């Protein structure tokens, strides 16, 4: 169950800080000045799969028309992929003790994995097995942002897929917890060459999507976090997190952005300014002196947020990528090729696609 109708008391004050409405648009970035990892390029698939980006966008448009929530699921998968062992699609692999099964990935949406593999199938039917699941995941994340109302931006391409997944320990170590404060998050992101501005901008992804009570219950029980707006806390307790036992509730969810839950905009920062951020990791960004001003600026200037979000996503999307002859191009995003008994069929598919060209 997801809902926000009950947040009526917070909506009353929602328009105080609004900057002018900005349309979803391509942000103006000087792509020539953005650092690109060796082996990646903006036009990597221009001749090998010219329709790649339109195939993905068209399909996702159809999917989101039915359920815009899928955008949040796809965006989060890209983040969880990149933070653990780099953007190599390791999170997509099935297997015992896989990344997928590690606690921080417990609530990644099963549908997100399915959508990525369906996109892969569409792309490979058209172009042959030339585009990695990692590139497809990065493009799906970009389109999730854009099709939810956020900025459009270019994604450097040429990633290859990893041959193994990380251990549970590595997965836990590399993914931040919602209970962590800004100091911890700044240190954690610094290990990935992401700075405080990247942290604030990337956290803005919580402008869409859902969360389970377990992620913020420590802010409600046994004592209520004084940095949380009382009215907001009361609404959360009433409808989503009625008792300490709610931490075991794996089905009830609440929206992450009470103002515009499905729209990718800067209201996440407006929430923080009103002490209506859901996680400690969110709200503390408006407490810590290193990040408070950045939050305040994004809350009144959506364009500034969009531009920085695009830059930070391009950065995050290049974390420890495999390129060239490293890794492989998976024929099925959930399994590495040598474990894929259906690979032969896929090779035949590829030949058929080549003949069609
Ligand atoms: C900075 C540290 C971050 C922490 C601690 C964090 C933590 C979380 C948690 C606990 C949830 C809710 C999971 C659940 O209970 O179901 C969540 C959801 C989400 N996160 Fe983050 N996150 C962080 C950064 C990011 C980044 C960088 C992105 C993407 C760029 C992102 C995108 C999302 C999205 C879209 C959702 C909603 C997922 C859905 O509805 O399926 N998060 N995050
Ligand atoms: C981050 O939060 C997790 C989960 O609550 C906790 O185990 C960990 O110690 C925190 N990290 C730091 C460095 O405090
Ligand atoms: C929720 O998931 C956890 C861990 O996967 C499990 O221990 C717990 O029993 C589940 N709770 C419910 C209510 O299903
Ligand atoms: C991909 O692999 C998964 C896991 O083995 C399997 O369930 C799925 O059917 C495969 N998909 C295709 C299109 O072969």
TrEMBL record:
Where in the chain is the site Transition state stabilizer?
76
Cofactor dependence: Ca(2+); heme b
Which controlled-vocabulary keywords does the entry list?
Answer: Calcium, Disulfide bond, Glycoprotein, Heme, Hydrogen peroxide, Iron, Metal-binding, Oxidoreductase, Peroxidase, Secreted, Signal
- Coiled-coil intervals: none
Its name, as the record gives it, is Peroxidase
**A GO term, aspect molecular function:** metal ion binding
The entry's substrate-binding residues are 176
């Amino acid at each position: 169950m997801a809902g926000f109708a009950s947040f009526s008391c917070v909506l009353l004050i929602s328009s105080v800080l609004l900057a002018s409405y900005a349309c979803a648009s391509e942000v103006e970035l000087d792509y020539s000045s953005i650092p690109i990892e060796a082996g990646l390029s903006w036009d990597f698939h221009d001749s090998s799969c010219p329709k790649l980006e339109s195939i993905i966008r068209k399909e996702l448009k159809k999917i989101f028309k039915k359920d815009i929530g899928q955008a949040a699921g796809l965006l989060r998968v890209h983040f969880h992929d990149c933070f653990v062992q780099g953007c190599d699609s390791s999170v997509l692999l099935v297997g015992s003790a896989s990344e997928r099964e590690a606690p921080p990935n417990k609530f990644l949406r099963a549908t997100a994995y399915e959508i990525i593999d369906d996109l892969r199938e569409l792309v490979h039917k058209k172009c042959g097995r030339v585009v990695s699941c990692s590139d497809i995941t990065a493009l799906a994340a970009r389109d999730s942002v854009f099709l939810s109302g956020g900025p459009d931006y270019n994604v450097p391409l040429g990633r290859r897929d990893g041959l193994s997944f990380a251990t549970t320990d590595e997965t836990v170590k590399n993914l931040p917890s919602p209970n962590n404060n800004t100091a911890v998050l700044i240190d954690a992101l610094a290990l990935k060459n992401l700075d405080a501005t990247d942290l604030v901008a990337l956290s803005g992804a919580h402008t869409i999507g859902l969360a389970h009570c377990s992620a913020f219950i420590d802010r409600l029980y046994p004592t209520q976090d004084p940095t949380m707006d009382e009215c907001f806390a009361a609404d959360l307790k009433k409808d989503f997190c009625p008792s300490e036992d709610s931490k075991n509730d794996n089905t009830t969810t609440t929206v992450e952005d009470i103002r515009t839950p499905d729209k990718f905009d800067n209201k996440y920062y407006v929430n923080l300014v009103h002490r209506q951020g859901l996680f400690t990791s969110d709200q503390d960004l408006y407490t810590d002196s290193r990040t408070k001003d950045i939050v305040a600026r994004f809350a009144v200037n959506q364009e500034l947020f969009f531009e920085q979000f695009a830059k930070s996503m391009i950065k995050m999307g290049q974390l420890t990528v495999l390129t060239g002859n490293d890794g492989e191009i998976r024929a099925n995003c959930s399994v590495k090729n040598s474990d894929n008994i259906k690979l032969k069929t896929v090779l035949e598919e590829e030949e058929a696609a080549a003949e069609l060209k």
